[in-house]
Amino acid sequence: MRTIFRRGAGVFALLSGAALAVPATAQWTAEQDRTDMMRQLGITALIPGPSGDEKAPNHANVDEAKANPYPVLPDPLTLKNGGKVADARIWFDKRRSEILEDYTREVYGRVPANLPPVQWKVIAADHEMVDFFNPIIARRVVGHVEDPADPSRSIDIRMMEVLPANAKGPVPVLIMFGFGASAWPEPSQPTPPEYDRINAAMKAMLIKQDPSLAAVFDAHQAFAFATPPGFHLPQHDANGDLSPAEQLIAAGWGYVALDPTSAQPDNGEGLRSGIIGIGNHGAPRKPEDWGALRAWAWTASQVREWLSTDKAVDAGKIGIEGVSRYGKAALVTMAFDPKFAVGLIGSSGKGGGTLLRRNFGENVANLGTGESYWFAGNFLKYNTKGVSKPNMDANDLAVDSNELFALAAPRPLFISHGVPEAGDAHWIDQNGAWKAAYDAGRVYKLLGKTGVGVAGPAEMPPPTTMIDGALAWRQHTGGHTDVPNFRYFIPWANKELGVGKP
Fold first, then answer.
1. Strand ranges (DSSP E) for 347-480?
2. How many whole angstroms separate alpha carbon 442 and alpha carbon 454?
3. According to the model, what pLDDT value does residue 18 have?
4. Which residues contact 42 (CB under 8 A, 6 or more apart)?
5. pTM: predicted TM-score of the whole model, two decimal places
6. Distance between CA 449 and CA 292 in Å, rounded?
7. 468-491, pLDDT tens digit by residue?
8. How confident is the model at residue 501 (pLDDT cuts 50, 70, 90)?
9. In terms of DSSP bridges, do strands 342-346 and 413-417 run parallel, antiparallel, or are they unpaired?
10. Is the separation of the CB atoms in 177 and 320 below 8 Å?
11. E-assigned strands of 215-360?
């Protein structure tokens, strides 16, 4: 029986209704995976999400007056039995684990208990110089994981570790989700005499193959196959800032450029491959199995563990950073791995720091029909209100992002956004993230920390306002990036972590 999705009457309909004949092939399409998950959950239809194009007829709501159909949020300081979280002991012993379990089961999924270990290998190392004055050691590293039952099912986690070369002791390190895991910062170059030897050897080899080239080279004696690179100044952006990597090195930090898609593809077709496929031995997911966001967070934790074995790294001062979908992954990392010391969460949107109960910009329907592979299968249940059993929406979730922020407490968390006018679209719902952070501030306050929700305004402040403290906030005037906030993040993180103090 052929199963398809039809967009009609305001729903994505599962036409076959009963048992589905989805082939047990090595790889499925995203549609096949979603179809099979709907079958497992007894879901027959999903609601399509609104358009991110504000000029489209079905555009997402961007009217704040209509944004809060469910103003009452889950309370991070109320236990499931109704008891109140009155002190840090109750938070850590009881309430935090309750929230984690709800997020695990219903939103991000469970990590398999017996994943194979990561086998790390330094592929190459290079001594380089950044911005003329900052010597570094860069190492290209690969982490290999394979399924013992089928070694052909494997991954190679790609990353680039960059540390200051002349540090007087262990340094803090920021793991940055994204790309560039294969790019050397400033590849070291041969000396002029070495260039001369290279050119002489290449000319001799070619003359040996074709003796007539001797006359050509004699007629063009200044010709060279390889020449030393020209002088170039450090590149600054429109705000006068160096790149985040250069800023970190100049401040005495190290960093890791991590490609999370080398561990788990960023698409629904990859759910039977990558680390999720290894954990399931290539089988389809079950409703509580993990999605890509939790897989990327797991990857960051594996990198953190490897970094902790490096004596040049301060194992107690390793942080995580990401923007957009990787901002979601960075926040999930902070929530599930308490050994991360600090986080920079950029424009993470729905499924990250923005309240799922909000009707503003992207919503649960978009995540369920477009990026369901980011989440556990159970998350589909919350996009069925009025169209299918179990007839639930975001208000039926036991958790929301105020509690996701709270799971990071009391560790320092810097929440970064841009402005819609410059490209950080209304789709992101910056105010929804502010409201979530403001409520999470109650947990930070309980644990003796300050920041959003503890000090400062109740409403989202104007752009460029810096809310300091352990739960920090700054909305820059740029687009969908956190780069303009690095100049604020680094000194803030130094202060919060005590970097440079005896």
1. 413-417, 466-467, 471-475
2. 7
3. 37
4. 389, 390
5. 0.92
6. 32
7. 999 999 999 999 999 999 999 999
8. low
9. parallel
10. yes
11. 254-259, 313-323, 342-346
